[in-house]
Amino acid sequence: MTDVVTCVKPSATACLTPEVYQQAAFWLPVCPVHLIADRDTLVLAPPDALELSLAQAQELADAFNRHFEQAGYQLVVVSELCWFLGSSHAWKTQFPSLAEAVSMNLRDAWQKGKDAAVWRKLLNETQMLWFVHAVNQGLEGQGKLVINGFWSLEKKPWWQFWR
């Protein structure tokens, strides 16, 4: 399993081939996560608790890419816990870093910015898509945490900073 710390400041140009890099105007490094919802809280399980193989990560990304192709989103898997989310447009959105998000109630500190509602919609739709995916069904059957979202690896107010 890849240590999340090694993916804290990845560069899209260093991690993605030139052919892939050119497929989206903006890239954001993200980590697959398990979101835990309770009555009035939403928290992230620590990423090191995830037991996801590279092949499983790629299967989830492939499903995401098929589903969101028309919307202009693309997930690229670099390692089990280090992915890039590509978009055809820049979003005005701020995120708590992954390290901050693990230790906070996300309902109180959800993403902020002009496009925060669109980001939440993307995450909600991703949760529904992956809920029935064979990878998550297998993980759940083995008593492992399912992957039901992704989170920005670092605080960034604008996606184009990663370009």
Textual characterization of the structure:
This protein is an alpha+beta fold and 163 residues long. It has one domain (4-162). Helices cover 32% and strands 17% of the residues. It is built from six helices and six strands. The strands form two sheets. It has a four-stranded antiparallel β-sheet. It has a two-stranded antiparallel sheet with strand order 2-3. A hairpin with a 4-residue loop joins strand 2 and strand 3 (42-44). The longest helix is centred in the last third of the chain and has 16 residues, at 116-131. The chain is globular, with a radius of gyration of 15 Å. The two termini are 27 Å apart. Residues 1-8 and 157-163 have low confidence and may be disordered.
Summarize the structure.
With about 160 residues, the protein is α+β, with helices and mostly antiparallel strands.
Topology:
Blueprint: H1 12-15, H2 18-21, E1 26-33, E2 35-37, E3 42-44, H3 54-68, E4 73-77, E5 83-87, H4 98-102, H5 116-131, H6 134-141, E6 149-152
Antiparallel strand pairs: 1-5, 1-6, 2-3, 4-5
Question: Which features would summarize this protein structure in a list?
Answer:
single chain, alpha+beta, 163 residues, two-stranded antiparallel sheet, disordered N terminus, 6 strands
Relative helix content: 25-40%
Side-by-side strand order of the widest sheet: 4-5-1-6
Overall SS class: alpha+beta
Number of domains: 1
Query: Runs with pLDDT <50, length 5+?
Result: 1-8, 157-163
Range of strand content = 15-25%
Ends distance: 27 Å
Instruction: Sketch the topology as an H/E string, one letter per element.
Output: HHEEEHEEHHHE
* SS field, number of helical segments: 6
Radius of gyration: 15 Å
Shape: globular
The average pLDDT score comes to 83
The profile of the biggest β sheet is:
4 strands, antiparallel
What is the count of β-strands?
Answer: 6
